């Protein structure tokens, strides 16, 4: 089975940095996209950053210039470098993968999330 595991979250002061990782495992034939999402208490889940196969990264306006998404293809791992963190960045961060597996042509897979808390 395919699994995504996020790591790297924690407590950080405003202005600090964190680096999140999302490791994918299992039988994966092709990765089409890998994306980062976040959900703060009482708010809807929002797309933060995307890395499309054959294209460059994209970011939401709220994190543009502060966050950087990248991928290590040899390890099937997605990263999110977060700089200049603000209190508004406090949320559970999730990674999502769209990929071909033995069971489906284009499946959607979510990790369990990692908590990021930014103190004022």
Textual characterization of the structure:
This protein is mainly β and 120 residues long. Helix content is 0%, strand content 57%. It is built from no helices and eleven strands. The chain has strands at residues 3-7, 10-13, 18-25, 30-39, 46-52, 57-59, 67-72, 77-82, 91-100, 107-110, 114-119. The strands form two sheets. Strands 2, 4, 5, 6, 9, 10 and 11 form a seven-stranded mixed sheet that branches. A four-stranded antiparallel sheet has the order 1-3-8-7, with no helix packed on it. A hairpin with a 4-residue loop joins β5 (46-52) and β6. The radius of gyration is 14 Å and the shape is elongated. The model has no long low-confidence stretch (mean pLDDT 95).
Q: Which class of secondary structure composition applies to the elements? A: mainly beta
User: What's the order of the H and E elements?
Assistant: EEEEEEEEEEE
Total number of strands = 11
Mean pLDDT metric:
95
Low-pLDDT residue intervals, each spanning 5 or more residues: none
- Based on Cα principal axes, name the global outline: elongated
List the helices and strands and how they pair.
Elements lengths: L2 E5 L2 E4 L4 E8 L4 E10 L6 E7 L4 E3 L7 E6 L4 E6 L8 E10 L6 E4 L3 E6 L1
Parallel strand pairs: 2-11
Antiparallel strand pairs: 1-3, 3-8, 4-5, 4-9, 5-6, 7-8, 9-10, 9-11
Summary, kept brief:
The chain contains no helices and eleven strands.
Which descriptors apply to this entry?
120 residues, seven-stranded mixed beta sheet, four-stranded antiparallel beta sheet, elongated
